[in-house]
Amino acid sequence: DVILYATPNVRLFDWYVVTDLDDTYTDADLLVQLDVKKYTNSPAASYSLKASLYDKDNDLVAEMTSGMFSMDAPGKKRLELKKEIINPLKWTSETPNLYTLKMQLLSGTGSVLDIAEQRIGFKETLIDGGLFTLNGVPIKINATNSHMQHADLGHTMTEEIIRKDFEILKQFNFNAVKTSHYPPVNKYLQLADEYGLYIIDKAGVESHATEFVSEMPEFTAMYRERARKMVLRDRNYPCVLF
Question: What is the chain's alpha carbon radius of gyration, rounded to the nearest angstrom?
Answer without folding.
Answer: 20
